[in-house]
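User: I'm new to structure prediction. If I give you an amino acid sequence, what do you actually give back? Let's try with this one:
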Amino acid sequence: MSENMRKGIYILPNLFTTGSLFAGFYSMVATMNGDFRTAAIWVLVSSIFDGLDGKVARLTGTSSKFGVEYDSLADLVAFGVTPGLLMYSWALKPFGRLGWLAAFLFVVCGALRLARFNVQVNTVESKRFVGLPIPAAASMVSATVLLFYHFGWPSSYKKLAILILIYFLAFLMVSNVRYYSFKDPGIIKRQPFAFLVLAILLLIIIAAEPVVMLFVLFVCYIASGPIGFIMTWPRRRRLEKAVHKGHEANAPPERK
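Assistant: Good question. You get back a string of structure tokens that encode the predicted 3D arrangement of the chain. For your 256 residues, that looks like this:
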């Protein structure tokens, strides 16, 4: 046992992580019972706990290697296995092998996304995530299920679109597309008065149509990555060409 483990572990942030894991497991139980709406809600509950555990750890100075590893394992269950099982049972089962492979691809891409995040956590800009965060992908799955139940759409509407959605989310998780992390400390600093008004209006709209607005918000966040990637492509190409020319200029002359 390591020296840090002998000293004990921090209880508070790990309790939030356990809450996230519990919500993910209960979602699986609801899925197996055929209660897909409840399963989707509990995935969203899990994402709330997941967002709180990191913030609590940073605010209280109780971050630890144990907490990071435990959080990753909980995320794989709650946001990888759970939504994969939910989508297979709810929409992908009629596709047979193509359906369960899509669900497995979602799980394995989520695992790869978490592993890459743990490796790059100290080398990548904290304001941006590389690849779609797995909680956002799982929340998009849940929002989609809730949207269908909200409008009472028949199951025949969802088949092919859901299959494409799962493959698309899996691709985004392992891509190099960057997403805003909401870890910028400037968010909690003084902002213009108009920001407060817009925030209040947004809360009112969400309260009026929570299911529709949650779906729209997750769609906007997921689309923000590819849109930003396309918009910054010319600038990145110019930077790459400049760096390449700089390397060529600094290279030693070839011997004849």
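You can read the tokens as a compact description of the fold. Here is one thing that stands out. The domain at 3-250 is CATH 1.20.120.1760 (Four Helix Bundle (Hemerythrin (Met), subunit A)).
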